[in-house]
Amino acid sequence: MTRRELREHCFKMLFCADFYPAEETNEQLERYFEAPEEDETTPEGASQILHQVEMDEKDHAYLLRKTEAVAENLSGLDARINQVAEGWKTRRMGKAELTILRLALYEMLYDDEIPDKVAINEAVELAKKFGGEDAPSFINGVLAKLVKEKK
Questions:
Q1: Contact 110, 70 (CB under 8 A)
Q2: For the stretch 91-119, what's the b/e string if a residue is b when 16 or more beta carbons lie within 10 angstroms of its beta carbon?
Q3: Strand ranges (DSSP E) for the chain?
Q4: In Å, how far are 6, 46, 117 from 124, measured between CA atoms?
Q5: Burial 13-48 (b: 16+ CB within 10 A, else e)
Q6: Could you give phi then psi for residue 58, rounded to 5 degrees?
Q7: Given its phi and psi angles, is residue 94 left (phi above 0), alpha (psi -120 to 50 degrees) or beta?
């Protein structure tokens, strides 16, 4: 599975878990892997898979470790986001955009294998796919400020 696919699964897991109390996070993350495959037909008539969680044990373990690590650091990540998101505190942000910001910031701060530019680019791509119309530019702007603050 590619890093992009793993990141998308991580986003979905964190997004879903955010709708439940913190004490249920680990249970919700495990339930993600039990969800049935989901597909749709595109306007052109082709079948497109929207959700498929079949993966090898290595990817499964990686996803659980990463999502649990992000979930454990939510308060610190949110505090950093709140410092730079002028007029947009985390409590006012859409869940998709907030989840994307949390994941990207986690990668920037704690994952030495992912360069900041890659984390930002991947976050913008997630925003294009899952966020609102203005999400890509919003995500890019907040993360750019966080990179400057980081240095």
A1: no
A2: eebeebbbbbbbbbbbbbbeeeebebebb
A3: 38-41, 47-51
A4: 16, 26, 11
A5: bbbbbbeeeeeebeebbeebeeeeeeeeeeeeeeee
A6: -60, -45
A7: beta
Instruction: Report the predicted TM-score, pTM, of the whole model to 2 decimal places.
Output: 0.85
Q: Is 63 left (phi over 0), alpha (psi -120 to 50) or beta?
A: alpha
pLDDT in tens, 22-65: 777 777 777 777 766 665 666 777 766 655 677 889 998 999 99
3-class DSSP assignment, residue 47: strand
Phi, psi of 14 (to 5 degrees): -65, -40
Place of tokens 């495990």: 30
Placement of tokens 């913190």 in the chain: 22
pLDDT surpasses 80 at 133: yes
Residue 54, helix vs strand vs coil: coil
Per CATH, the number for 3-150 is 1.10.940.10
Contacts for 22-26 with beta carbons within 8 Å, 24 or more apart?
A: 22/71, 25/68, 25/71, 26/68
Token digits of residue 57: 């044990």
Domain boundaries, the chain: 3-150
